[in-house]
Amino acid sequence: MKIRFAILIFVFGLVTAQAQMRRSGTGINALDQQHDMQGAAKPPSPEEQLSKTMAMLTTELSLNGLQEAAIRNVLHDQQRKLTALRTDSRPEAEKQEEAVQITTKSDNDIKALLDPDQLKKYDAFKEQMRSGKKKKKEKKKEKEREISE
Q: Residue 128 has what pLDDT?
């Protein structure tokens, strides 16, 4: 009985010490915590990106349940292939060409699932997303120029 009580006290003390080290920023994860405290956001996981994209598409295009499931599968497959392509050892030009093929195939598969009204909305949505990315790239280049000056 005394041994069990001693083990219980030891485990409790260990858990308490570990929690205090994390709280004070002196533990193994101190650098990660400091990085998080500085406001550096971690990029969203692929699942989070897919969920966010699907939420936007479902709202913008008024997708029904079947369309949503099919498009989610197409985008998940695209995401999986592009991730595998990034780790491929082929030259960048080949990888970029294949990435365009993967994206084009996915785009055509999605378009085949949409009715004409949804198709117009989808094209507008894609254009809006492209222009948003271009603006972000332009802002990033401007910041880099300001820093280098």
A: 87
